[in-house]
TrEMBL record:
Assembly with partners or alone: Heterodimer of an alpha and a beta chain.
Keyword DNA-binding in annotation: yes
Top-level taxon of origin: Bacteria
Pfam families tied to this protein: Bac_DNA_binding
Entry annotated with the keyword Transcription: yes
Gene that specifies this protein: ihfB
Function: This protein is one of the two subunits of integration host factor, a specific DNA-binding protein that functions in genetic recombination as well as in transcriptional and translational control.
Entry similarity comment: Belongs to the bacterial histone-like protein family.
Protein name according to UniProt: Integration host factor subunit beta
Organism: Roseicitreum antarcticum
Amino acid sequence: MIRSELIQKLAEENPHLFQRDVERIVNTVFEEVIEAMARGDRVELRGFGAFSVKHRDARVGRNPRTGESVEVDHKYVPFFKAGKQLRDRLNDQ
């Protein structure tokens, strides 16, 4: 599901809201999650999962085309851990 499909589905399920308002709500939620993660905070949505930021140390990598060694700087990457309800639902338990 992409963002526009999510907005459409929520608008259909909430006919009392205008689609532009639903779009604004979805965008605000995503922006808040992004801003929290940018600050290094953890975002937990009960029953769904938790978003956090992991640090990857600098390392020496390899260019797959040439086999040449390449220095890879340290970086921060987003990480998602699924909640128990989500895992159970996916596994039909």
